[in-house]
Each structure stands twice: as C-alpha cells, then as structure tokens.
Amino acid sequence: MNRHTAWDTLFIQKTIRDLGRGVFFSESLESPHIGEMIGNCTVSTPEIKGEGDYEVTAETPVGELRPAFMIPKWCGTDYPTLIWHHGSNEQPFDFSPKAANAFNYIIGPPTNYPELNIIIIRAAYHAGSAETYVKAVGHLKKLVAMLAVSVLLGEQLCAHMKRISEKMLVLSGISLGGYVANLHRCYFNSADAYVPLLAGAALDDLFLGTKYKRLTAKEALDKPAAIVRVLNFEDDFISREDNNVFPLLAEFDRFARLEVQRRCYGEHPLVVIDKGHVTAAHSGEVLRDHVLDVFQDPSLKEMKVE
Q: Of 31, 40, 85, 15, whose CA–CA distance to 228 is shortest?
C-alpha cells in the first residue's frame, strides 16, 4: 500500500466513524434509474441578482428538496463562467480554512479567484449536519433524487447564463460533483465544456467495487444488480459524441477507480495524475490548472455538436 491508497483507507475509516458503517441504502433499494428520476423532478430558482446565496425549491418523488447555489464572484456578462459542484458530505458554502470544502484547495480563497463568474451548487441534504445526509442516503431513491435535483439546478443555471452571455460556460465538480457534471452532459449537454474530477459514469462501482462499499448496507451489497440498474449511466454518457469533456482521474484512487471510470471517456482527452482520491483532492494547484486551462481553448464552442 502506497501513501495515496493509505490516505484513501484512512478517509474511509474516518467516514465510518462520522457516518457509521453500512449507512448507504440501509432502508430501501427501490428507485428509478437516475435518467428517469431527472425527468420526474422540477426545480424552481429565484431571480438572480449578482453575488449572494440563493435558496432553491425542488419537487421530487421523495418530496420537496432544498438545494441552493452561491455566487461568490460576479464579474459580469463579458466574462466566462464556472459552475462548480462539491463532493459528498462537503460544506460548499463554508470557506473557513478547516472546512470540508475541496473548492478551497482547488480554486482558492476569494482573494485568489480567477477573473470568472463563479457559481457554486449545494446539493440537497448538505445544508445542515451530517445526520441529515446519513438519514437521506439510507434510501437509494433519495440519493438519486438528490443527484437529479443537482443536475436540474445545473441546467437552470446554464440556461440563465446562455440567455445573458455568449462567453465560455464550464461545468465542473469533484467526486460527487464530477458525477453530477457527467450526468448533466448526458441529459442536457448545454455547457460549452465539462471538467469532471475524480469521477466517471459508473457511480454504481463506488458502492459495490471500492473501499467505499464498507459504507454500503449488507442488504444492498447482496443485491448489486439493483444498484447497477439505478446508478450506472455509462451507455448514456458514451452516446454523447461531443468533444467537450475534459476529465481528470487519479492512478491510485480507491473510490473512482481508474480502470473502471476511464471506460466511459473513450478517446476524449484524459489526464491521469499519480495520486489517490484524497491526495488528488488536496492537489489544489494541479486541479486548478486543469479546470482553468479549459477556458483557454476558444475552439470549444465550434467543437460542440448542435
């Protein structure tokens, strides 16, 4: 075991202490496929008036959910825009030094933000304590609804930016956020470019084939086909032929396994770094450069298939 896989192991041990073993899908496994769930949810966003926090209402088959988004930096419609989605159980609106917020490591503190409009999505179940999140993910259907609502909120924000600006629009995220970015590309594909970090399109593998499965309930592990049917979206992702996705994976990642998650990217340009999931997430300069480099490619809009 090298230090990168060791850090991933330590992270799982800490997560088990914080959340409990076998918390995912311990209550129920019934759920439609993520693509179907997206079609069964609606999201209502408030009027956007520049920098600030915005509460959002979503109607879903599991009831009303309350995601949100923040605009920590607004430069204007003459500037490109980054829409960012956080990782699982993060605190995306907390920018204090010790907060569980990968955005701090990657894009940096507000004084170091690039000259971009920045919009940060906060998933449902991430506004309060970890207990709220744990209670929700006991049900596969609630996890899927959470993902669907983040994707729909991403589309609302993309549509808004397309209405008011012709500048580059990039949707990116890390881990959970990377899967959300890929889901958005699958089912909407309205951003100019997608930069998923430490994620692919086989979300089922996280819960069934990696160290993370220690967080999956035994009852769910005994019925792997149910999880694959709901959470795998590789075929839908591969069917999108646009040259607009710029993924980054880590060689020693024990959660978003390179050998599994790279399958969906085919011939798309894939960057692989010699890190694990945790050490990659803390490699802020590398990830920052990868995200921001996409904004330097003026050919992306021409490359999109309309």
A: 31
In the three-class reduction of DSSP (H, G, I as helix; E, B as strand; rest coil), residue 170 is classed as strand
Q: How many helices (H) and strands (E) does the chain have?
A: 14, 11
Tell me the C-alpha distance between 237 and 206, whole Å.
17
> How far is it, in rounded angstroms, from Cα 57 to Cα 41?
11
Q: For residues 86 and 175, what is the distance between their CA atoms, to the nearest angstrom?
A: 8
Return the axis-axis angle of helices 140-164 and 224-231, rounded to nearest 10°: 10
Tell me whether residue 118 is exposed, middle or buried, using C-beta atoms within 10 angstroms of its C-beta: 0 to 12, 13 to 18, 19 or more.
buried
Mean pLDDT of the chain: 93
**Dihedral angle computed from the Cα positions of residues 203, 208, 212 and 218, in that order, rounded to the nearest 10 degrees:** 130
DSSP 82-107: EEEE--TT--TT--STTSS-HHHHHT
* Rounded CA separation 66/38 (Å): 16
Residue type, 131: E
| 90, amino acid identity | E
| Cα–Cα distance for residue pair 183/117, rounded to 1 Å | 22
* Residue 303: predicted pLDDT: 42
pTM: 0.95
Work out the widest C-alpha separation in the chain, in whole angstroms. Answer: 53
User: Above 80 in pLDDT, residue 1?
Assistant: no
